[in-house]
Write a structure and sequence with these properties.
Dihydrodipicolinate Reductase, domain 2; about 300 residues; 2 domains; Alpha-lytic protease prodomain-like; Cation diffusion facilitator family transporter; Cation_efflux; CDF/SLC30A
Length: about 300
């Protein structure tokens, strides 16, 4: 019986392969831009009486916390374990940061909706000039941050969480400008409340979508786009393999898919050759760099006794 490991545990190698770490500078620049604008938007929102601006500022606050957590998470994720207790390192830190982003977004959405409901039937006095100026400034800053983060959103769930937040912020900035224009055109401040309500709903939907991805990773679901039956069939077709069982595949963190499997060999097959072929197949065809394969001469009764 042999065990093959298709992954390493050295700090340097891990850092180079961590998707979030490669895009850390994008998170840093976006954090600086959005943190500065949050202060401006909050002050103007409070002085102008605009719920749309205040709601967007609340979402900006969520962005500041989320981006800050993402920066910390990418640093923690690439830190070498000195305790000997974290055999997978700290890569899951970025997934937890994405979960924080979801909670922050949902919190902002609930606050905005409650405030909007409270304004129903009233006639809020809103100054449109500051709304339009700040909305335009926010749009410019969000577009810059969105362009920065977009390049890393496909590689890292952490960066994707920040990217989704910025997309929602961009929509919020557009909404603020639309609300200002409608109030200016109609003289009715109710448009500020309507747009704030729509922003809250949009943020909630985006949060739920990202939350499903986070839960899939934490629940160790099969990685998106990977069909487990296809992987089983491909391993079973390798020369020298008679049976494949106990195959598990999951995502450790963005860009790091993991798999384990038991390969039962035909009589006389070379275990070393089968092991190398299996690791190569998983890496090149299914993008699974971290694979642990157990080679067996026959199917063990101990394997059959395992219920999962």
């Amino acid at each position: 019986m042999g065990v093959g490991h298709g992954h390493g545990h050295q700090g340097g190698a891990a850092t180079g392969g961590h998707a979030g770490a490669r895009h850390r500078w994008r998170l840093g620049v976006s954090f600086g831009l959005i943190a500065a604008f949050f202060v401006v938007e909050l002050v103007v929102g409070l002085t102008s009486g605009s719920l749309a601006l205040i709601s967007d500022a609340g979402h900006m606050a969520a962005d500041v916390v989320t981006l800050g957590a993402a920066l910390v998470a990418t640093k923690i994720a690439t830190r070498e374990d000195s305790t000997g207790r974290r055999t997978y390192g700290s890569y899951r830190a970025e997934v937890f940061a994405s979960g924080l982003a979801v909670l922050m977004m949902l919190g902002v959405a609930v606050y905005v909706v409650i405030e909007a409901i409270g304004r129903i039937g009233g006639e809020p006095d809103v100054r449109t000039g500051p709304m339009l100026v700040v909305g335009l400034l926010g749009l410019v800053i969000n577009v810059v941050a969105m362009v920065l983060l977009r390049a890393g959103a496909q590689d890292s769930l952490n960066v994707k969480g920040a990217y989704v937040e910025v997309i929602a912020d961009t929509a919020g900035s557009v909404g603020v400008m639309v609300a200002g224009a409608l109030i200016l055109a109609t003289g009715n401040g109710v448009w500020d409340t309507v747009v704030a309500f729509l922003i809250g709903g949009f943020v909630a939907v985006r949060a739920v979508m990202l939350g499903r991805e986070v839960l899939a990773v934490l629940g160790q679901h099969v990685p998106a786009g990977l069909e487990i039956d296809t992987v089983t069939g491909a391993l079973a077709e390798l020369d020298g393999v008679r049976d494949v069982h106990d195959l598990h595949a999951w995502t450790l963190t963005s860009g790091m898919n993991v798999a384990t499997a038991h390969l039962v060999l035909v009589e006389g097959a070379d275990g070393g050759s089968v092991l190398r072929a299996g690791q190569l197949l998983l890496r090149e065809r299914f993008a699974i760099e971290h694979a642990t394969l157990q080679i067996e001469g026959h199917r063990s009764a101990a394997c059959d006794a395992v219920s999962w």
